[in-house]
């Protein structure tokens, strides 16, 4: 649905999150979607990031994509659209400042659509 942001969807069945226990799936997810805010083992045990993202965005497609399918799809899309390589190929690398328009143009070369990006100012001392 291109007309709305798909998150926190109402009117769907109550959505819950099941802790992922499969070691292979955890490893695959951690490679592509690391929980950088947390100590590694705590992140793996509690899965706060994955849970938050699934409940926020997975709630919108739960009838079509139950939790395992949601994460498989997310990983496949991450692999298909390697944004870090795309940005690098357009001369955009971490540690420098770029115009939002330049970043959007680079991403659009692989996504076809203009991405919905927003900048958040980081204040000194923020983690």
TrEMBL record:
Gene3D superfamilies noted in UniProt: Ribonuclease T2-like
GO MF assignments: ribonuclease T2 activity; RNA binding
Source organism, top-level taxon: Eukaryota
One GO cellular component term: extracellular region
Keywords: Endonuclease, Hydrolase, Lyase, Nuclease
Listed InterPro entries: RNase_T2-like, RNase_T2-like_sf
Gene Ontology BP annotations: RNA catabolic process
Family: Belongs to the RNase T2 family.
Name of this chain's protein: Self-incompatibility ribonuclease
UniProt organism field: Lycium chinense
Lineage: Eukaryota, Viridiplantae, Streptophyta, Embryophyta, Tracheophyta
Encoding gene (name): S
């Amino acid at each position: 649905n291109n007309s709305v942001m798909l998150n926190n969807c109402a009117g769907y069945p109550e959505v819950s999150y099941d802790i992922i226990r499969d070691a292979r799936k955890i490893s695959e997810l951690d490679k592509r979607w690391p929980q950088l805010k947390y100590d590694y083992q705590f992140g793996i045990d509690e899965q706060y990031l994955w849970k938050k993202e699934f409940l926020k965005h997975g709630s919108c497609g739960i009838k079509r994509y139950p939790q395992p399918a949601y994460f498989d799809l997310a990983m496949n899309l991450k692999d298909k659209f390697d944004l870090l390589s795309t940005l690098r190929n357009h001369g955009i690398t971490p540690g420098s400042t770029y115009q939002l328009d330049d970043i959007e143009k680079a991403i659009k070369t692989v996504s076809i659509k203009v991405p919905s990006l927003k900048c958040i100012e980081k204040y000194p001392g923020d983690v």
